[in-house]
C-alpha cells in the first residue's frame, strides 16, 4: 500500500457539504474556465458566456444553503451584502450604461463565486475538484506560454495579435493578466505542498511551483512578480509561525528572527528580480522611475484630482476612462487609459468614501478571518492536508492580490476575480468550531425553552444570515443576467465574425458581407465600443472608394452616433462623428460635435487634434457665409478658426503636417485681413466659445 493510499484510508468522511455543493463548484469552475479561454475582462461580449454557468451555480449554492443551513462568517456576509447593494446601485446609475453593466457584472460574479467558496467548499470532494482544475488551467497556461516564448510571440487564443508581445500571456491577451492569476495560484500550490501528507499531490504541486516561478518571470510583469513573491512568502511565514507555537520561548524568538530575515530576503529578492525585469523591458531599473515613466503614478494623481470633484460619492462607474482627460498629467502616455492601475484610488475616485470603506472593511474582515482560521486549524492524524493547505494558500493569495491592487487592476479581470472569490470564500466557510459554537448557544437556549419554542428555534437555525445569503445570490444572478443578456444572445454571431477578422489589420479592407454582419451585431448588442469600431470600418470603406461605397458614409454616421449616444464622453466617437458630418456638408451640425470633442480632449490635442479639426470646420462655414455675402459672420468664423488653429499649434500639433498647417494659417490670416480692410464689423459665432487655455481650466 502506498503512502497516499494509507493516508486516504485515515481520512474521515467529509466535514460538510453535499453533492449539490460539489455540482455548484463544478459549474462555477466551468464558467471560470470559459472566462479564462474566451475573455480578458474588458469587452462584455467576450466574457458573458461565463454568466450562464455562474447563474446555474448560484442557484445550486442556494440549494446547498437550504439543505445544509450553512452560513458564512457573519462579518464577511455583512460587508459583502452592503458592498453588493452599494456597488450595484451605483453601477445601475452610471452615466455610461456599458461601464455600469461591466462593473455590475464583476460585482455580482464575485458575490456568487465568494458564496460558492464559502458554502460549497466544505467537503474534500469540492476542494479536490478545485485543486485539480487549478492544476489543469495552470498547465494549459504554461504550454501556451511556452509556445509564445519559443515559437510565436504574437500567439493568443481567439485574439491575434497580442497587444504586447514582450513576455508571455498564456491563455490571456496580456501578460499582466496571467501574472495576476499566477499570484493567486502559486501561494495555493506552495501551501498545499507544505501541508499535504499525500505524496502524489506533493509531487504535482511541487512541480507546479517550480514551473510557475519560471512562468512568472517570463511574463515580465513587475507588479505581478512582486505580489506573487509576497503571497508565497506569507504562506511560508504562516507555516514557520505555526511550527513555532509548540516551541520554547527562546526557540520562538529565534523563529521570529528567522521569519523577519526571510521576509527581508524575500523583499530584497522581489525588488532585485523586479528591477531586472524592468531592465529587460528597456526601462529604468528603479521601480519608481519605471512606474513614473509608464504613467501609473500620474494616473494615481489624476484619480486623486478626480476624487476631489465629488469626495463623498465619487464620479461614477469606470468614470476614470473619460475623466482622466479633465486632469491629464501623463504626457508620455500615448494610449487611452481605462484604469487607474491602482484599485484603491480607482474605487475612491469612482465610488467615493463609501466604496473605499466597503472594500477596505471587507478586505480587513477576510484577513482577520484568515488569521483566526490559521490559528485555530491544526494538522491532525485524520487530515490529508489539502483543505488546510488551501486555507493557508488562500490567505497568501489574498495578501498578494491586495498588494497587486496598489500597482495594477488584476481583480478587474473576470477570470482572476472569480478565482479570487472562490479562495476568499473558502476563508469564511463554516467550520467545526463555528458549528460547535452554534450548538452551544442552542443548548443554552434549550434549558429555558420547551415544546413549540424548540421547533421554532430549529426551523430558524441559521435564520437571518441564511436569508441574507440567499437574497444576495438571487439578486446577483438577476443583475448579472440583466447586464449581459443581449450580449449572450449575440455571442455566437460575434465570435463567428471575430474569427474572420482576427488577423485583419485596422487599415485593411473588409468584405462587404462581413461589414454587414458587423452592422447587425451593432444593432443587437448595446456596446458603444462596437458601434464606434463599426463606424470606423464604414468610414475606411468610404474613403477607399467614395463613389462605390457612398452608402457607407451614412452607415458610419449611424455607428458613431450610436457610440456617442451610448457614451456621450467618448472623445474619439465625437470627433469621428463631427468629421463624417463635415464630409456630408452638414457643417453647422458638425460644429456642435466638434465643440463637444474639444471639450472632452483639448488637454490631449496632440492625440486627438480636435481643435485643429474644429478650425477647419469653422473655416469652411466662413467660406459659405462669404459666398452668401454674410461678411460679418464670415469674419467672426475666420477669426475663431484662427484662434483654434493657433491653440492647436501651441500644443505642437500640425494637422496634415507642418507645411500644410502653416499654409492654412496664412490663408486664414489673409481672409481676416481682407475683410478687416473693408471695414467689416466682426460678428462672433454664438455656437462656438473661445478656445481653452492650456494653463487654465475651461470655463
Radius of gyration computed on alpha carbons: 30 Å
H/E order of the elements? HHHHHHHHHHHHHHHHHHHHHHHHHHHHH
* Range of helix content: over 70%
Q: Regarding quaternary structure, how should these chains be classified?
A: single chain
Secondary-structure-based class equals mainly alpha
DSSP strand count: 0
Number of helices: 29
Shape: elongated
The biggest beta sheet reads: none
Overall mean pLDDT:
83
The amount of beta strand, in percent, is: under 5%
Distance between the termini: 81 Å
Low-confidence stretches: 6-15, 435-461
Structure commentary:
The chain has 699 residues and is mainly α. The protein is 73% helix and 0% strand. It contains 29 helices and no strands. The chain has helices at residues 3-10, 19-38, 44-47, 50-68, 74-92, 97-120, 124-150, 175-195, 199-219, 222-244, 249-280, 287-293, 296-309, 320-323, 343-376, 386-404, 414-427, 432-446, 452-459, 463-501, 512-524, 528-544, 551-566, 571-583, 587-601, 605-608, 610-627, 631-650, 658-677. α8 runs antiparallel to α16 (386-404), α27 runs antiparallel to α28 (631-650) and α28 (631-650) runs antiparallel to α29. The termini are far apart. Mean pLDDT is 83; it is low at 6-15 and 435-461.
Amino acid at each position: 500500500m502506498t503512502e497516499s493510499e494509507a493516508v486516504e484510508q485515515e481520512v474521515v468522511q467529509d466535514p460538510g457539504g453535499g453533492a449539490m455543493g460539489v455540482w455548484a463548484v463544478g459549474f462555477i469552475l466551468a464558467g471560470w474556465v470559459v472566462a479564462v479561454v474566451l475573455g480578458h475582462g474588458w469587452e462584455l461580449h467576450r466574457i458573458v458566456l461565463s454568466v450562464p454557468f455562474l447563474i446555474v451555480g448560484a442557484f445550486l449554492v442556494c440549494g446547498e444553503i437550504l439543505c445544509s443551513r450553512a452560513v458564512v462568517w457573519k462579518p464577511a456576509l455583512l460587508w459583502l451584502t452592503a458592498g453588493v447593494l452599494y456597488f450595484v446601485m451605483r453601477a445601475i446609475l452610471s452615466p455610461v450604461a456599458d461601464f455600469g453593466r461591466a462593473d455590475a457584472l464583476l460585482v455580482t460574479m464575485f458575490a456568487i463565486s465568494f458564496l460558492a467558496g464559502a458554502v460549497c467548499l466544505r467537503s474534500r470532494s469540492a476542494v479536490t475538484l478545485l485543486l485539480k482544475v487549478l492544476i489543469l488551467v495552470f498547465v494549459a497556461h504554461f504550454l501556451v506560454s511556452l509556445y509564445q516564448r519559443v515559437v510565436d510571440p504574437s500567439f493568443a487564443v481567439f485574439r491575434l495579435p497580442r497587444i504586447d508581445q514582450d513576455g508571455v500571456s498564456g491563455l490571456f491577451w496580456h501578460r499582466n493578466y496571467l501574472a495576476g492569476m499566477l499570484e493567486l495560484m502559486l501561494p495555493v500550490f506552495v501551501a498545499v505542498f507544505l501541508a499535504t501528507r499525500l505524496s502524489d499531490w506533493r509531487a504535482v504541486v511541487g512541480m507546479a511551483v517550480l514551473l510557475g516561478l519560471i512562468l512568472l518571470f517570463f511574463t515580465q510583469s513587475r507588479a505581478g512578480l512582486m505580489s506573487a513573491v509576497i503571497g508565497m512568502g506569507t504562506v511560508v511565514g504562516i507555516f514557520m509561525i505555526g511550527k513555532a507555537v509548540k516551541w520554547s520561548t527562546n526557540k520562538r524568538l529565534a523563529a521570529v528572527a528567522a521569519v523577519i530575515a526571510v521576509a527581508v530576503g524575500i523583499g530584497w529578492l522581489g525588488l532585485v528580480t523586479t528591477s531586472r525585469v524592468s531592465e529587460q523591458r528597456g526601462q529604468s531599473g528603479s521601480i519608481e522611475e519605471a512606474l513614473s515613466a509608464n504613467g501609473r503614478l500620474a494616473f494615481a494623481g489624476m484619480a486623486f484630482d478626480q476624487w476631489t470633484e465629488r469626495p463623498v460619492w465619487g464620479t461614477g462607474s469606470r468614470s476614470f476612462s473619460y475623466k482622466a482627460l479633465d486632469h491629464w498629467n501623463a504626457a508620455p502616455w500615448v494610449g487611452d487609459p481605462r484604469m487607474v492601475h491602482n484599485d484603491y484610488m480607482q474605487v475612491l475616485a469612482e465610488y467615493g468614501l463609501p466604496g473605499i470603506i466597503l472594500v477596505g472593511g471587507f478586505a480587513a474582515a477576510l484577513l482577520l478571518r484568515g488569521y483566526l482560521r490559521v490559528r485555530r486549524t491544526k494538522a491532525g492524524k485524520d487530515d490529508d492536508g489539502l483543505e488546510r493547505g488551501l486555507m493557508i494558500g488562500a490567505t497568501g493569495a489574498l495578501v498578494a492580490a491586495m498588494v497587486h491592487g496598489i500597482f495594477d487592476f488584476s481583480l478587474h479581470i473576470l477570470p482572476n476575480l472569480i478565482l479570487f472569490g472562490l479562495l476568499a470564500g473558502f476563508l469564511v466557510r463554516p467550520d467545526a468550531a463555528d458549528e460547535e459554537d452554534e450548538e452551544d448557544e442552542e443548548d443554552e437556549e434549550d434549558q429555558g425553552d420547551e415544546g413549540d419554542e424548540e421547533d421554532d428555534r430549529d426551523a430558524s437555525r441559521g435564520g437571518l444570515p441564511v436569508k441574507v445569503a440567499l437574497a444576495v445570490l438571487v439578486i446577483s444572478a438577476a443583475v448579472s443576467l440583466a447586464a449581459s443578456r443581449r450580449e449572450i444572445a449575440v455571442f455566437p454571431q460575434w465570435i463567428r465574425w471575430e474569427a474572420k477578422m482576427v488577423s485583419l489589420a485596422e487599415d485593411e479592407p473588409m468584405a462587404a458581407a462581413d461589414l454587414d454582419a458587423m452592422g447587425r451585431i451593432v444593432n443587437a448588442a448595446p456596446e458603444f465600443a462596437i458601434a464606434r469600431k463599426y463606424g470606423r470600418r464604414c468610414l475606411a470603406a468610404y474613403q477607399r472608394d467614395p463613389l462605390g461605397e457612398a452608402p457607407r458614409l451614412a452607415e458610419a454616421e449611424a455607428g458613431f452616433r450610436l457610440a456617442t449616444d451610448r457614451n456621450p464622453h467618448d472623445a474619439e466617437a465625437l470627433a469621428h462623428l463631427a468629421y463624417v458630418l463635415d464630409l456630408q456638408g452638414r457643417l453647422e451640425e458638425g460644429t456642435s460635435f466638434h465643440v463637444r470633442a474639444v471639450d472632452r480632449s483639448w488637454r490631449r490635442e496632440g492625440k486627438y487634434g480636435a481643435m485643429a479639426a474644429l478650425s477647419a470646420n469653422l473655416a469652411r462655414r466662413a467660406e459659405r457665409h462669404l459666398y452668401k455675402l454674410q461678411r460679418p459672420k464670415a469674419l467672426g468664423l475666420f477669426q475663431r478658426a484662427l484662434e483654434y488653429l493657433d491653440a492647436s499649434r501651441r500644443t505642437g500639433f500640425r494637422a496634415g503636417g507642418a507645411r500644410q498647417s502653416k499654409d492654412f494659417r496664412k490663408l486664414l490670416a489673409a481672409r481676416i485681413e481682407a475683410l478687416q480692410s473693408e471695414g467689416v464689423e466682426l460678428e462672433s459665432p454664438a455656437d462656438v466659445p473661445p478656445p481653452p487655455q492650456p494653463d487654465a481650466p475651461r470655463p
